[in-house]
Design goal:
This protein is α/β, with parallel strands linked by helices. 47% of the residues lie in helices and 12% in strands.
C-alpha cells in the first residue's frame, strides 16, 4: 500500500510508488520541514487530542421517558448521546455526511420539549439560511413556533445586534454603517492615493490585496510584517506603508461611525472583555450555547462563544476538523483541536455513521483522513453498497484530453438517467474548468458555473445601496464618494473633497462649487438625499425615490440599463420585509442575497440549479452532495497549489480541501489529472500527479 508516513521534521517515509506516472521515489516532491516551534505546536495538538480520546466519558444518565424513546427511535446511538447531552461542555466531531444538522435540530427540539426556555438558547451558524432552515425544522418537529424565539444566526449578525444595543459602552453609536469587503478596499484605496506612495518604480499592491493583508493580520492576530513575509513576500518593501494605511483606515472608520466585517467581531469581543455588566447580562440570558461548523471559527469567534458560555458552562460545538478549509478567511482549525484544552471536562462524541456515500467511496476518503498530520481519529462507516464502484483515477496527456473525458463520462451518466443536477465537476481554482466548459459546450450539455460577480457587488446594486447608506448615515464617506463620482463632470479627486465636506457640513458644502457646471446636478442629488431622509417614509418609498433618481444616471452609464433595472425588483422584494432601513442595510451586508442572481455559491438543493450540471470551486461546494463527482486537475502545483507546499499548515489545509471534494460524492467519484500543465502561457510537460493521489493505496481505487 502506498502511503506517506510523516516524520518529526515533516519528511515522509515508506513510500511505494504506484502506476500513477510517478518516478521511483518522491524526491521530486517538495515537503515542508517543521521548525522547532511548529513541531512543538503540532505535538501539543496531538497531546490535547490524545487526552480526550483516551478519556472515555460514559453517556449521561437520563430517564428514558416517552420523549426520549421517540428521539432514540429516530437517531443512531451517537446522535442520541449528543441530543441528550444538554448540560456541560460537549465537543461533537461530525464526519462528512454523518447527520450533523439533524443532530443539532433534534437537540434543539429536545431542549425545548424538556422545558428549557427558547430565549436562553443561542445557536450560532455560518449562514443566516442555515439558521433559518434549522429553526424551521425544529418547529416542524415539535409542532409549534417555539424555535422562533431562540436567538439563531451568524456570529456577525449576533455581534451586530449586540453592538447596536450595547456598543455605546465602548464608544460605538447605534447607527453605525457596516462596510462590505468592496467598501473596505475602496476606503484603503482612498487612503493610499492621499499618501501618494512612490517606491522607485516598484508597484504598490492593489486595493484588494492591501485589504486581504490587513484583514489576514487582524484575523490571525499577527503583525502585518509577518503576514507579508509569509504570504505576500513580493510586497515586502511596502510593510511600513501598509502599516500606515491600516492605522489611517482604523481612524477613518472611527471618525465616520463605520464598521467592517472584522470590526464586528473585534469590537464585540472588546465589549465583552471590557464591560462586565454587558457580559453578565448576556451570560444570564444565554445559558445554552451551540456553535455549528466550529472548525471554521476564527480566534474572535472562538473567544466570543467561550465568554458567553463561561458562566453556565453549557456549550456544545459541532464540526469536523477534517473539513477546515477557510484559513484564508481567518478560520483557525486549532479552535476545534484545542476545545478540550479550554474545557477540560468536555465530553467527546463522534458521529461516525455516514448516510451519504457508498462504502467503496467511504473507504477511500477514510484513507485521506489517515494521512492528516494531526486530527481526531475517525473511521466513518456506511451501510450503503448499491454499486460497490471504487473511485476512478485517470491521467491524460493534456487538459484538453481531460476535459473531453469528463464530458464523455457526463454524457454517459446522463444517458443512464442520472439527472444533470446530480453531477458536479469540482476544482481548486476557477480557471481549472476552462477546458471542461469547452468540452461540455461542444456536446450541448448545459451547465451552471458558480463563481462570477456576486449580486451585491454588481455596479448598479452597489450604487443604489450607496445612496441608501448615505440616507442612513450622512458620515459614510465611502458611499458619499461613490455617489458623487456618479455626477457628470466630477472626477475622483473632486468627489473625495465633496464627500469629506458633505460628511462634515451637509449640503452647505455645495456653495463652494456654485460656479461649476455640475453644480445643478449636485443640488439635485442633495435634494434627493434630503427627500429620502424623511423618517416617516417606508423603506419601499425611500427605495422608489432613490431608484427614480438613479434611473437616468444608469441609462447614461450602461447600455444594458433596462436589463439591470430588472435587478431592482429583488431589492424591493427584500426591503418589503423590513420596517427599518438600518436593519435592511445591516442584513444585506451581513448575509447578501447572492442566491437571487448569478450566485457564487451552489444552491443547497440540487434541484435549484436548474437541471444543469454543476461546475464549482471546492470551497463553494462544501456541505453539499451529488450522485457523481469529478475532481479535476489533480496535479502538483495546481492541487496542492504550488504556494502551499512550503508550510505544513498550508499543505494540511490543501489536503483537507481534497477530502472535502472527495466526500461530496454519493455513488461515483472520478479523480483526473493532465500530465502537462499550462504555466503562464507555457506548457510544462511531465507534471507530477497530486501527492494526495499518490499517498492513497492502490487497492482503494481503479486506475487507467
Amino acid at each position: 500500500m502506498a502511503r506517506f508516513v510523516v516524520t518529526e521534521n515533516g519528511g515522509f517515509l515508506e513510500i511505494e510508488p504506484e502506476d500513477l506516472g510517478l518516478s521511483s521515489d518522491f524526491s521530486e516532491y517538495d515537503f515542508p520541514e517543521l521548525d522547532s516551534s511548529e513541531r512543538e505546536r503540532y505535538n501539543e495538538l496531538k497531546s490535547v487530542i490524545k487526552s480526550i480520546e483516551e478519556r472515555v466519558t460514559p453517556v449521561s444518565k437520563f430517564k428514558i421517558g416517552e420523549i426520549e424513546q421517540i428521539y432514540k427511535n429516530q437517531l443512531n446511538q451517537a446522535q442520541a448521546d449528543a441530543v441528550f447531552a444538554t448540560e456541560g461542555p460537549v465537543l461533537v466531531i461530525a464526519g462528512a455526511g454523518s447527520g450533523k444538522t439533524r443532530t443539532i435540530v433534534y437537540r434543539t427540539a429536545y431542549m425545548l420539549q424538556k422545558g428549557i426556555s427558547p430565549e436562553s438558547i443561542l445557536l450560532l451558524t455560518f449562514t443566516r439560511r442555515a439558521a433559518g432552515e434549522m429553526t424551521d425544522r425544529v418547529n416542524k418537529l415539535i409542532g409549534s413556533a417555539l424555535a422562533d424565539r431562540i436567538t439563531a444566526g451568524t456570529f456577525h449578525s449576533f455581534a451586530n445586534l449586540q453592538l447596536r444595543k450595547y456598543g455605546r459602552f465602548i464608544g460605538i453609536m447605534p447607527n453605525f454603517t457596516i462596510c462590505d469587503t468592496v467598501d473596505s478596499a475602496d476606503m484603503m484605496d482612498l487612503i493610499k492615493n492621499k499618501l501618494d506612495i512612490k517606491k522607485n518604480g516598484k508597484t504598490m499592491p492593489k486595493k484588494g490585496t492591501i485589504a486581504e493583508i490587513i484583514s489576514r493580520s487582524r484575523n490571525h492576530l499577527k503583525p502585518i510584517s509577518e503576514v507579508i513575509e509569509g504570504y505576500y513576500c513580493k510586497y515586502i518593501d511596502f510593510i511600513d506603508e501598509i502599516n500606515q494605511i491600516a492605522e489611517l483606515y482604523a481612524q477613518y472608520k472611527a471618525e465616520r461611525n463605520l464598521l467592517d466585517y472584522d470590526d464586528l467581531l473585534e469590537k464585540f469581543m472588546q465589549l465583552l472583555e471590557s464591560s462586565p455588566e454587558v457580559l453578565e447580562k448576556l451570560q444570564n440570558r444565554y445559558r445554552y450555547v451551540m456553535v455549528d461548523e466550529y472548525q471554521d471559527t476564527n480566534v474572535f469567534q472562538g473567544k466570543i462563544a467561550d465568554l458567553i458560555a463561561q458562566k453556565s458552562r453549557n456549550i456544545m460545538v459541532v464540526g469536523d476538523d477534517s473539513q477546515s478549509i477557510y484559513a484564508f478567511r481567518g478560520a483557525n482549525f486549532e479552535n476545534i483541536l484545542r476545545f478540550p484544552q479550554k474545557w477540560e471536562d468536555a465530553r467527546l462524541i463522534k458521529l461516525f455513521r455516514n448516510y451519504r456515500s457508498e462504502r467503496a467511496l467511504l473507504d477511500y476518503t477514510n484513507e485521506i483522513i489517515n494521512n492528516f498530520y494531526v486530527s481526531y481519529e475517525k473511521a466513518l462507516v456506511s451501510n450503503i453498497d448499491r454499486t460497490c464502484v471504487k473511485p476512478v483515477v485517470r491521467r491524460f496527456e493534456s487538459a484538453e484530453k481531460e476535459g473531453e473525458f469528463v464530458a464523455d463520462e457526463i454524457e454517459k451518466l446522463l444517458e443512464s438517467r442520472i439527472r444533470p443536477e446530480e453531477i458536479a465537476v469540482l476544482y481548486r481554482s476557477s480557471f481549472h474548468a476552462n477546458f471542461i466548459q469547452t468540452a461540455l459546450l461542444k456536446r450541448g450539455i448545459e451547465f451552471a458555473v458558480f463563481g462570477g460577480v456576486k449580486f451585491m457587488e454588481r455596479r448598479h446594486i452597489k450604487d443604489v445601496l450607496s445612496y441608501l447608506k448615505v440616507v442612513q448615515n450622512r458620515s459614510d464617506s465611502v458611499a458619499l464618494n461613490r455617489i458623487f463620482k456618479l455626477v457628470p463632470g466630477v472626477g475622483a479627486a473632486t468627489a473625495a473633497k465633496i464627500a469629506e465636506g458633505y460628511a462634515a457640513e451637509g449640503a452647505g458644502v455645495l456653495k463652494k462649487y456654485a460656479k461649476k457646471k455640475y453644480y445643478e446636478d449636485l443640488e439635485k442629488l442633495c435634494d434627493m438625499l434630503e427627500s429620502a431622509s424623511n423618517d416617516e417614509l417606508k423603506i419601499s418609498e425611500v427605495l422608489k425615490i432613490v431608484m427614480d433618481f438613479y434611473k437616468p444616471v444608469l441609462e447614461e452609464l450602461e447600455e444594458d440599463s433596462d436589463d439591470r433595472m430588472k435587478d431592482f425588483s429583488v431589492l424591493v422584494q427584500l426591503a418589503s420585509a423590513y420596517s427599518e432601513l438600518e436593519k435592511f442595510l445591516a442584513d444585506f451586508a451581513l448575509d447578501p442575497p447572492d442566491s437571487q442572481l448569478n450566485s457564487s455559491k451552489v444552491a443547497a438543493n440540487p434541484a435549484e440549479n436548474g437541471n444543469k450540471v454543476v461546475l464549482s470551486t471546492i470551497h463553494s461546494a462544501k456541505g453539499l452532495e451529488w450522485d457523481s463527482v469529478f475532481v479535476i486537475n489533480l496535479c502538483e502545483g495546481a492541487f496542492p497549489a504550488e504556494k502551499s507546499v512550503t508550510k505544513i499548515d498550508d499543505l494540511e489545509e490543501e489536503r483537507r480541501l481534497f477530502y472535502v471534494a472527495c466526500s461530496r460524492a454519493k455513488s461515483r467519484l472520478y479523480l483526473t489529472y493532465p500530465q502537462q500543465r499550462n504555466m503562464y502561457g507555457r506548457f510544462n510537460a511531465g507534471v507530477l500527479p497530486s501527492r494526495f493521489l499518490a499517498e492513497i493505496g492502490r487497492s482503494f481505487y481503479e486506475f487507467s
